[in-house]
Amino acid sequence: RTINLWQGHAVEEMLTHLLSSPAAVRPLPTSYFVAVLSALCSFNVPKEVPLTLASAFVDRVDCGESIATPEQWVRILHSIRALDDPPWWDRVTPRILQNLVPHVRNLSPHNLALLLQTYASKPQHSKPGQRAESGDAILDHLPAVVTGAVNQAVRAGGWNIEQVVHNLDQLGRLDWYSDTTAAAMVAQCTQTPLLEPHAPLLVPLSRACAALRIHHAPLLNKMVLWYCWSCTYLRPNPLPQPQVDELLEFAGHLLDLSFHSLELQGVLSEQLLNPNASARQKLALLAAMARFAHFPVEFKEACAKVCAESHSSDLAALTSADLVNAFNIHLCAVFDGPAALKHWLTEDEAMKTFFQVHTSQQWYHKQDQERTTFLQSHAYLTLKQAIEDEGLDLRPSDPGDVYHIEFVSKDAKERLGAMPADPPIALVCIKSKEQLRWYIPITADVGLDAEALAVQNRCHQFRYMFRGSVQKTRHLQAMGYRTAAIWLSEWTALETAEQRQAYLRTALGTPGRQNATFSPNAAEEEENIAEPCQHCCHQCQGEVAFEEGTTNSFFTCVHISSLA
């Protein structure tokens, strides 16, 4: 077939007839059928042919006319998964999974990895109600079954470090998480020494941690130190463009996880002088450094040079996400940067023009989109009702604000200008995707086994935000707001109006715990909140505090969190 030996020949017509007819392949043993199906899917044939054969085979299995082993079901799924789109979805994939799911725990590590890779390559996202209607409710059980089998395979030593990282990355793409599975996989990654062949693993490992919301500080620190060492001794100097992109992706995942490292900030600073880096890459480097609150001497010069090239084709091709990220240069410098840099960015005509023309529009468009989405959500309706029942003077923030705030005091802008003793309230909703599932501080013992690690996961006792909500909360506090957090993972679980009112009262009435950038929820931390802290400039309330005259003064109270 590959060399078209039979093109236009009677043999081709006969094969086409045979392979297009489910009845014609019925005499094939299952192993032969699986081989034929795999071959068909690899050739440029109409997708209806292999999908029809697969559907007919499942029919024969349901009727007891054929039988397949779990490994053969995995191969069938792997063959047709790339082709299986509606309306074929209901007829093939869920029915294959119905036969496969009861036997997932008995799959070999190789076939389990193949199943995970196959499903992660094209995950099916649908709501539970839709699944029940379409007959694929088996998908509701699939995450728990697969993560349990993965946990079993890792603890049995069925995968080496490369396979563990690859499969953790697949779990991240699917957002399938369990504490025991995460503990087993993180323990193996932490205890395995990083060597030169492991260099390609750092980006997928950091990507998996961010996707699964795992902040394991000893592992992240180990990855950062090894990466910085490899930049000094193993990688070419200066870095070529593909490796600069890899550095930016690696740093982006660490920023999402709120993991700050002076060593990594130094590597980012060095790349500002890299002659191989494009204008787009240097803009992304500046944005990453600004989000790290790291403003070295090279920052201003590099920023001016990039903005001078604003008409280059490289910058003209920036995506909306790139432009939103680039606005962080201006935003974070204004809130977190030294006074001289702040003055230059806000007063220099070239800088103002660049950020107004190229980046601010996309940033504010994103904030308005978030506002519109929130106003159409069920969380908005229930929050609004609870606020009215409590008689609170709160309303949604106005369009065009630098940050979308779910609810603020009605006279917030007037009070911010007057700097009153009682600051206005900013009620911030923390989405589930912005709340960590796993947090272990840098001081944890790296030699702990999986069981001990699972016990030390502080997310069982406290709540920690990450991703953009950290920067948003920090900047709102810098603006003068008294922030209060509504954790949507908890809010949506509340069933009655009385429960929601009580939750809202607690959120607004406990500024110490609720206002922390990484907010613990245990009353046992209350006694530490009002004590002076050597890492803060004022009474410790779990907030991020800054010292005057430093270029990267980013501290978080260690009484509550050692994330910084």
- How many beta-strand elements? 8
Radius of gyration: 27 Å
Uncertain regions: pLDDT < 50 for 5+ in a row? 126-135, 511-564
Please list the strands of the largest sheet in the order they lie side by side.
Answer: 2-3-4-6
Strand content: under 5%
Spatial gap, N to C terminus: 59 Å
Number of contiguous helices: 28
Mean pLDDT: 83
Largest beta-sheet characterization: 4 strands, mixed
Helix/strand/pairing category:
mainly alpha
Helix content bin:
55-70%
Q: How does the overall form come out from the CA principal axes?
A: globular
What attributes characterize this protein structure?
four-stranded mixed beta sheet, 564 residues, disordered C terminus, two-stranded parallel ribbon, 5% strand, mainly alpha, globular, single chain
Task: Walk me through what this model shows.
The protein has helices at 10-19, 30-42, 48-62, 70-80, 93-100, 109-121, 128-134, 142-155, 161-174, 179-191, 202-212, 217-233, 241-256, 262-271, 279-291, 297-308, 313-316, 320-336, 339-347, 349-375, 378-390, 412-418, 450-456, 468-479, 488-491, 497-509, 511-514, 526-529, and strands spanning 214-216, 394-395, 407-409, 425-430, 438-440, 482-487, 544-545, 555-556. Helix 6 runs parallel beside helix 9. The protein has 28 helices and eight strands. The strands form three sheets. It has a four-stranded mixed beta sheet with strand order 2-3-4-6, sandwiched between helices. The longest helix is centred in the middle third of the chain and has 27 residues, at 349-375.
